[in-house]
Amino acid sequence: MQPKHVRALRDERADTPGAANIRLKALRALFRWAVEADEAPHDPTRDVSKIQYRPTGFHSWSMEEVEAYEKHHSVGTKARLAMAILLYTACRREDAVRLGLQHIRNGRVQYVQAKNEHRSPVSIDIPVHTDLGPSLALRPQAI
User: Fold this and answer.
1) Of 69, 85, 91, 63, which is closest to residue 134 (Cα–Cα)?
2) d(CA 40, CA 28)
3) In the sheet where 108-112 sits, what is the strand order?
4) Angle between helices 63-72 and 78-89 (to 10 degrees)
5) Tens digit of pLDDT for each residue in 58-105?
6) Helices (H), the chain
7) DSSP 133
8) Whole-model pTM?
9) Closest C-alpha among 81, 90, 85, 91 to residue 112
10) How far apart are CA 12 and CA 41, in angstroms?
């Protein structure tokens, strides 16, 4: 295999540069191992560069999209509860899945963030939002 073959494999995914770079990363790992294990004479990925691009990030929902979601998922469903927890606590996804009734005390949401919880824990103590209360009261039994 030669660098031109690696570039061709990378460029097959050029319309999604992130995927193209992940493919290149996987090929680099493969050939790093292959050269070290004497399975390949050289590393053809060495002189192949990543595709440069600027990621645009993720689209934040507008209030119209939130309202459409809430209209589709009624209060009392898991989907509505998940949306309410994420929207009205602004917690990370990792923290949202950990939250439960044990974190609701005296009308407040109190928990320790999972990120860096063992190195420098951050305690969160926020009031229960008025729109979150009904979703918590009618929560699915599985939660």
Assistant:
1) 85
2) 12
3) 104-105, 108-112, 123-127
4) 150
5) 899 999 999 999 999 988 888 998 998 999 898 999 999 888 888 888
6) 3-11, 17-36, 63-72, 78-89, 93-96, 132-137
7) H
8) 0.59
9) 91
10) 25
Q: For residue 114, count other CB atoms closer than 10 A to its CB.
A: 17
Contact 103, 109 (CB under 8 A): yes
Q: From CA 130, how far away is CA 143, in angstroms rounded?
A: 20
**Which residue has 């939002």 as its token pair?**
129
Burial class (CB in 10 A: 0-12, 13-18, 19+), 77: middle
Amino acid at residue number 60: S
116: left (phi over 0), alpha (psi -120 to 50) or beta: left
C-beta separation of 79 from 68 below 8 A: no
Sign for the pseudo-dihedral over CA of 68, 128, 126, 98: negative
Beta partners for residue 111, in sequence order: 124
Q: How many CA atoms lie within 13 A of 71 on its CB side?
A: 6
Query: Which residue type is seen at 2?
Result: Q
Residues contacting 115, CB < 8 A, separation 6+? 92, 94, 122
* Residue 126 amino acid letter: I
Cα angle for residues 135, 141, 143 (degrees, 5° grid): 70
